[in-house]
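Trying the structure run again after the queue cleared.
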Amino acid sequence: MERWLADATLVPHQRSRTDVCTALGVDERMIWPNSVRANLKTGHDREVFAVYPYRSACPTSVWSQLIDDATSEIFLAGYTNYFVWLEQPALHQRLRRKAEAGCRVRFLLGDPQSATTRQREEIENVALTVSTRIRITLENLAKLAGTSGIEARFSAPEDGPNHVSLSVFRFDHTALVTPHLARLVGHDSPMMQLRRCQDGGMFDRFAEHAEELWERGTPA
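Done. Tokens:
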């Protein structure tokens, strides 16, 4: 410890820096300010908290924590949203409790009978079709029918291509965003985790996209 403090050019690993600061009872910025500044994002990418090469690479625990921690807003604006019902245990009860506590819960879905859905099914050419995945969500939402604070809409027909190509899942000031690549299904497409830090940043851009689709949508 004395050697690190005596020579400013010696910068230990993060874990060692944390241990030293804890032992001395000081903030890391007092001892290694340059290291702190080097690790602090200040540009447009500072809202990018994590990235995953595949949506399926994001641990289900991340989704679970975001759902459980949300207090004001849960907005699932994927085209099908079906996987959350399969991966999250007791989701009906959890969403009902959220809504009863004052959290707004919304689902934006693609219309299973739309031209966009049929076209996407031809592109993906998989056994679990897009319309089937949407109906999985609709069947689960039916179990929550009548719960105040839980809403569901289909995106407008003219918005179908924009909706199917980009999924936005919002939990208060955190969002998971998946741009769908070419012929890949959702779980094979990349995903970003964003945390809102500023007006007009990455989070706001994607949140506004989802809100625009929602405003033009029709009750599901």
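Residues 202-216 form the longest helix (15 residues). Worth checking whether this holds up in the mutant runs.
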